[in-house]
Design goal:
Layout: E1 4-5, H1 11-22, H2 32-49, H3 54-57, E2 61-65, E3 78-87, E4 92-102, E5 110-112, H4 115-126
Antiparallel strand pairs: 1-4, 2-3, 2-5, 3-4
Helix pairs in contact: 1-2
């Protein structure tokens, strides 16, 4: 699959790619607008962690699975989408779009930062708190 920049203008391309992957399965799968929302979620989360430095985000990935958790006694497999978004200088692109079979549990979306972006996020976080020395006798 060719990478697709996730924008409103590319909604038809995104929907076509989803149709190709999903076949006739639509119950637990993503639609085009869902992908736009995922890209917005990825950007919001990334910017929250790596404050206002979009250059550091280039190369980051965001992985999400469609559907929601079902009761544990759900005994059937269901078709879901696994979407991998990659951050480029232009924005988030779909770098991988696959169909998988899952049971009742859907993994939570996950952001993968580049090493430099992660170092900045940790540094920024550490600047928000201090450590308290505790005495083990008390």
């Amino acid at each position: 699959m060719k990478n697709i920049l996730v924008t409103q203008d590319n909604l038809a391309l995104i929907s076509d790619a989803l149709s190709e992957v999903n076949g006739g399965a639509w119950t637990h799968t993503y639609g085009g607008r869902d992908i736009l929302q995922l890209a917005a979620m990825a950007e919001k989360l990334a910017m929250k962690l790596v404050i206002r430095n979009k250059k550091l985000l280039i190369g980051s990935k965001f992985i999400a699975w469609s559907g929601q958790n079902l009761p544990k006694n759900y005994g059937y497999g269901r078709l879901v989408n696994k979407v991998v978004l990659s951050r480029t200088r232009l924005g988030w692109t779909i770098s991988s779009l696959t169909r998988e079979t899952l049971g009742s549990h859907v993994p939570k979306p996950r952001l993968y930062l580049t090493r430099d972006a992660a170092a900045k996020a940790v540094k920024d976080f550490q600047e928000t708190f201090g450590l308290v020395e505790t005495n083990s006798d008390t």
